[in-house]
Amino acid sequence: MNPLLTLAEHAASWRTRELTPEVERHARRALLDWYAALLPGCIRAPATLMAKALGSERGLGRAICYVDGREGGIRHAALVNGTASHTVEFDDIWRWGVYHPGCPTIAAAVAAAQARGADMATLLRAITAGYEVSCRIAFAVQPSHYTYWHTTGTVGTFGAAAAVAVLLDCDAGKTAHAIATAATMAGGLQQAFRGDGMSKPLHPGHAAEAGALAAMIAAEGVTGALDVLHGPAGFAAATSEDTGQWEKALASIGRPLAITEMTFKNHGCCGHIFAALDAVRDLQREEGFAAGDVAAVHVGGYKATKDVCDRPDARTEQECRFSTQYTVAHLLLHGGVRLDAFEEARLADPAIRALMPKVTVSEDPDCTKAFPAARSAKVTIRLADGRELFRHQPTRKGDPDAPLSDVELTEKFSELAAPVIGADAAARLAEQIWRGQTAPGAIALRALAA
């Protein structure tokens, strides 16, 4: 079995497949959530800086760079929009692959759809194909891939390639070469987000651009190595412990489709903290204690919660988005972790700083064993009056087994989009995404970040 050829045949079939009502709804949910994550990222660095730096290189075309509202080539729009959509950490998750498929896949697909004048149905089919291909590859190389690699930067390249190949009407042969070429351009190191800096959002931006490039040149006849996924020196061998769990990953391809099993974020930070935040929130609501009543909080989580998100002295916005200590303290004081959690005044808030040392993190073997299928946490809160509260949180609000409803997802979109484009424009865009028959086009931002 050659997994690449199997994936290419599946992706190419989405050129003509009929979208069932269920799949169409899930694809529209993914598209709405992508715009929710994209728009606040359009007025923040690094996307604003990238648009300025690369403005003269945008090329000709009808793909829209939402950061500056100007049209250009597919690759330029995919790069900048893909980066913007990962900036505020509100993008979707496929938990079995430890992967955010939306930011690379949809950034590339929307750009190609705009360039080709594709309708909504074609765009949704392309997104569905990109999710399925990339999520299956992610499954095949996890969990060991996540030791060093940022899956969204690596595997996201395949999602972008498959989606754009559908939009360019590539047959299975050309789609296979698009995926093959994408493999050799995949990258994204975990160290980029274990410290400070702006590199992490660049990972899906690069993946979107590289995947789009792979599909565009494959459509014209450029070929790739068709054994590049499973070969002895191929993608899986280079980025995981073996040559990939391909039989297991492909056994259930399309049953169910990955896009029907998405997690949509309910907190604006790293998803490895979500189970702990849900547990703390629920305990606080049930028991009615205030932040000042807390003597200590201990979070037992899976390995990535400890390795990536145990940051007791986080200071910058980037660090704090990945800090269990900061986000738990913020939630206890302010009731949630949304965009305002990372404003300058909050980052320096003495009350948050005083609470952070009371939060500790350790790896829990049971939680690690359940990962990545379950993103769980065991939280113990000790109060000043001597009471000790415990909650085992087996999943996260927003996961497929505890999903955001369509209403909740629309509320999330409005919360994130309205400050950027205005409430009326946000409502119109949501309506178009939920029910429209044409692919979304230009959106006027109310203001750009300095």
Q: What does this molecule look like?
A:
The protein has helices at 3-13, 21-41, 47-54, 74-84, 102-116, 120-141, 151-154, 156-167, 172-183, 191-194, 199-219, 235-239, 246-251, 274-287, 303-309, 317-321, 324-334, 344-347, 350-355, 365-370, 406-421, 423-435; strands at 63-65, 70-72, 294-301, 359-363, 377-383, 388-393. The strands form two sheets. The chain has a four-stranded mixed sheet with strand order 4-3-5-6. Strands 1-2 form a two-stranded antiparallel sheet. It starts with a helix and ends in a 15-residue tail after the last helix. Helix content is 52%, strand content 7%. The chain is α+β, with helices and mostly antiparallel strands and 450 residues long. The mean pLDDT is 96.
Quick one: overall form? globular
- What do the pLDDT scores average to? 96
Determine Rg (CA atoms, Å): 21 Å
- Show unreliable segments: none
What is the topology, as strand order, of the major beta sheet? 4-3-5-6
Helix/strand/pairing category: alpha+beta
The CATH class of the largest domain is identified as Mainly Alpha
Order of helices and strands: HHHEEHHHHHHHHHHHEHHHHHEHEEHH
Total number of strands: 6
Question: Number of folding domains?
Answer: 2
